[in-house]
């Protein structure tokens, strides 16, 4: 068995209580909960980037003769 390095982090009690609500089963560790939250966030960002690129392409097509400067900052 390979021993992994661990660290201790401090959380407000309200944050720890919120993390409990994300548990999929009672014995799931906070490490697993946090890992799942991070993974979900990464997948959401990837999906949102894809959607934004698709929308940008369509808006450029629709506004091809108009002014869409500033779309990059929308």
Tally of individual domains: 1
Strands, count: 0
**For this entry, what is the oligomeric state of its chains?**
single chain
Count of helix runs: 2
Low-pLDDT runs of 5+ residues are: none
Largest β sheet strand count, sense and barrel closure: none
Supply the key terms.
74 residues; 0% strand
Give the secondary structure arrangement, pairings included.
Blueprint: H1 13-21, H2 30-62
Give a structural overview:
This protein has helices spanning 13-21, 30-62. The mean pLDDT is 84. By secondary structure, the chain is an all-alpha fold. The chain has one domain (13-64). It is elongated and about 60 Å long.
Brief write-up:
By secondary structure, this protein is an all-alpha fold.
């Amino acid at each position: 068995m390979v021993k992994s390095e661990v660290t201790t982090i401090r959380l407000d009690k309200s944050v720890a209580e919120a993390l409990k609500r994300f548990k999929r089963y009672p014995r799931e560790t906070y490490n697993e909960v946090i890992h799942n939250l991070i993974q979900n966030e990464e997948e959401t960002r990837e999906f949102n980037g894809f959607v934004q690129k698709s929308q940008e392409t369509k808006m450029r097509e629709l506004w091809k003769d108009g002014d869409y400067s500033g779309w990059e900052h929308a």
